[in-house]
User: Fold this.
Amino acid sequence: MNLEIEKKKIFKKGAEASLYYGKWFNKDVIFKYRISKKYRLDIIDKKIRNSRTLNEARALIKIKNYGINVPCVYEIDPEESIITMDYIPGEKLKDLISILDIQKLEDYFKKVGIFIGILHQNGHIHGDITTSNILITPNKEVFLIDFGLHDYSDNIEDKSVDIHLLKRVLISSHGDYYKICFKAFLEGYRDCYNESSIEECESIILNVDVIETRGRYIKKEERL
Amino acid sequence: MVARLLSQLLEIPLVGVNHCIAHIEIGRQMCKIDDPLTLYVSGGNTIVSAFESERYQIFGETLDLAIGNMIDSFAREADIPHPGGPKIEKLARDSSKYLELPYTVKGMDLSFSGLYTAAKRLLKSKKFGIEYNLNDIAYSLQETAFAMLTEVTERALAHTGKKEVLLTGGVAANKKLQEMINYISDEHNARFEVVPLRYAGDNGVMIAWTAILKYLSKGEDTIEDTIIKPKERMDNIEVPWRN
Ligand SMILES: Nc1ncnc2c1ncn2[C@@H]1O[C@H](COP(=O)(O)OP(=O)(O)O)[C@@H](O)[C@H]1O
Ligand SMILES: [Mg+2]
Assistant:
């Protein structure tokens, strides 16, 4: 291991990854390790960890170009499933929702809407938009993280699913704030689209409701 | 229909019950479990749910096919009589040859349609019966689908911090799935329970039991209240007996 790289303490342990805080040539970084899961076959495990690591790193590098705040990537080790990226100081939006004042909350969600709108217009699907994957820095900047489930798509359906994931986490985990947050999100999201594309934007948003009813009970006559 | 008529004729109170909630309630009762994260897997549903903010919230679900329906349909393609699930489980036990199949998780949601199509393609391929057999497809199908279910259940478990996990629905009978969900429950120091099979599949007892809970806390419904709403979201329904 390079002497300029120093791995310090374990910093977060998520469902999928363990994060270490450390230094990489004087920069504050985190090392994101995707951990092996014993419940699944080795071959599936390897495939998932490897592809998500590559997916995430490539997405972060690409997306930086659109002026969206995401951590900068320094190193990728797909074999060991490690990404070295900028450490973003701050807190998860999840932990702030109930303590922020409404105005601030709306500002943040509007910003998230704008970011996701830009991603979607450029054919990027985040894949896991939750309030744990949005960070707020001490100087009030919004960062998107956790692109392991990122995908490329121009389909309305895929974009609707992306939005549906955020909507659902708002309902299930932040019910009291769901209406305010989602409304602000949609406002930002719509703002990204221009006259020629606003129709598509509305179709995407309408389709979110369709998705919601689909996964529910599937009647016998409607099954395969 | 029948219930409404009987209730009128016999002057018995009428209580409407949500099907998914009834699955969870009978599970809580039979397994003596208090506040679980539930994975409900059947022919018509694939849902990860837990009780939060006075409702049974949905944390993850299928975006297309239900897991049970997917497995049964595949079995039908392979000329296995309905219900194919138990037979697929048996076939899978005699293989350890994994054939690559698509794995699709979106956030805490799942999609099984790509997996289904790919498994069917393996069945129709010229290589079938030469390079691999039905056991191998059954094995690969289960390993892939159940790894997906286990992953989203683990995510929901980490997210909600629940200390109990309940597995229910017809597919809960599958030993392989039980083993995998048990594994992640252990890792998160959560107690794991499978609903006894008689009460895991659709049954009348679960409806009656949930009706009792509801009746005792809130009284009877009016006839209008009991109109069946198949698209009603489970997280819209009040659960007065848990508050
Ligand atoms: N670049 C970063 N800087 C600071 N904190 C981070 C960074 N990336 C992730 N985190 C923190 O670690 C947690 C888990 O990381 P994440 O990339 O979302 O992995 P997982 O797939 O396990 O959710 C995040 O919710 C966040 O709190
Ligand atoms: Mg995350």
Q: What stands out?
A: The beta strands of chain B are 37-41, 46-52, 55-61, 105-106, 109-110, 164-168, 191-194. The first helix of chain B runs from residue 2 to 10.
